[in-house]
Amino acid sequence: MKSKGLLVVLSGPSGVGKGTVRQALFATDHDKHQFLYSVSATTRQPRPGEVDGEDYFFLKRSEFEQMIEEEKLLEYAEYVGNYYGTPLEYVQEMTEQGKDVFLEIEVQGALQVKRRMPDGVFIFLAPPNLRELESRIVNRGTDSEEVIAKRMQQAREELQLMTQYDYVVENDSVDKAVKRIQTILDAEHLKTDRFIDNIVESYLQEGEE
Ligand SMILES: Nc1ncnc2c1ncn2[C@@H]1O[C@H](COP(=O)(O)OP(=O)(O)OP(=O)(O)O)[C@@H](O)[C@H]1O
Ligand SMILES: Nc1nc2c(ncn2[C@@H]2O[C@H](COP(=O)(O)O)[C@@H](O)[C@H]2O)c(=O)[nH]1
């Protein structure tokens, strides 16, 4: 049984649509599953329109390395030449308060979290095929040809690790992927202490009536 808030980790190769699916999920689902999004730290340069503290905490390499040194990260990984990591304090505090937290991270980091917090729900978002994955990254228009090639190389390795996740969800369409994730989250919520305590309480009350 789980006593804290639920930790949901959505992972998968760059460009598969994690951010798009997460935003659609949060937009359609906020009354039901009230997830808090954990903002990651990174040493990557901001893309046009990205806001510090909302999309990422944009840090210098030395600042990121200080966070590693001070053990302030739940997980971190070096991905295509930059650091990415999840600030530990936010996840710890929120889940301890019984709140559900949502991480959107790459595969090396997700597997570190799985080792540290095995009660989390680990979902791998998979592309329909590699050609479609590449065309999504290219059409997004945020990365150079060289970076796209590195991300695709990384994707080939990441796809081999999908069996280590609790669930694999294909992102063939955003609506379908959101519905699949909602079904998973509905089922996972039924396993939480919070739900079980409420249901047991209501059975006990019925017995007294
Ligand atoms: N089901 C889908 N069908 C077609 N295009 C999609 C689908 N899902 C996402 N996309 C598009 O693919 C591109 C990449 O999506 P997104 O940025 O959400 O991926 P990501 O996995 O969050 O990437 P990264 O890990 O690099 O941040 C975007 O242009 C998005 O609009
Ligand atoms: N291990 C972690 N990976 C993270 C984190 N935040 C984001 N990411 C992933 O990095 C890649 C590249 O992201 P991009 O914004 O440069 O396209 C992508 O797969 C992200 O999901 C994190 O905290 N830890």
Provide the gyration radius in Å.
18 Å
Strand order of the largest sheet: 2-7-1-8-9
**CATH overall fold name of the domain at 7-38 and 99-208:** Rossmann fold
Under the CATH scheme, which class of the domain at 7-38 and 99-208?
A: Alpha Beta
The oligomeric state of the chains shown is: single chain
Instruction: Write out the distinct hetero groups bound to the structure.
Output: adenosine-5'-triphosphate, ligand LQESDW3C
Shape: globular
Give the mean pLDDT: 93
Helical residue percent band: 40-55%
User: Which secondary-structure class do the elements indicate?
Assistant: alpha/beta
State the order of secondary-structure elements, H for helix, E for strand. Answer: EHEEEHEEHEHEHHEHH
* Gap between N and C termini: 28 Å
Binding site for ATP: 12-19
Enzyme class: transferase
Keywords: ATP-binding, Cytoplasm, Kinase, Nucleotide-binding, Transferase
Function: Essential for recycling GMP and indirectly, cGMP.
Report on this model:
The structure is a single chain. The longest helix is centred in the last third of the chain and has 16 residues. The model has no long low-confidence stretch (mean pLDDT 93). This protein has a domain of 142 residues: Rossmann fold (3-Layer(aba) Sandwich), CATH 3.40.50.300. Helix 1 packs across helix 7. A hairpin with a 2-residue loop joins strand 5 and strand 6. It has a five-stranded parallel beta sheet with strand order 2-7-1-8-9, with helices on both faces. Strands 4-3-6-5 form a four-stranded mixed beta sheet. By secondary structure, it is of the alpha/beta class. 31% of the residues are buried. One of its GO terms (molecular function) is GMP kinase activity. It is found in: Cytoplasm. Belongs to the guanylate kinase family.
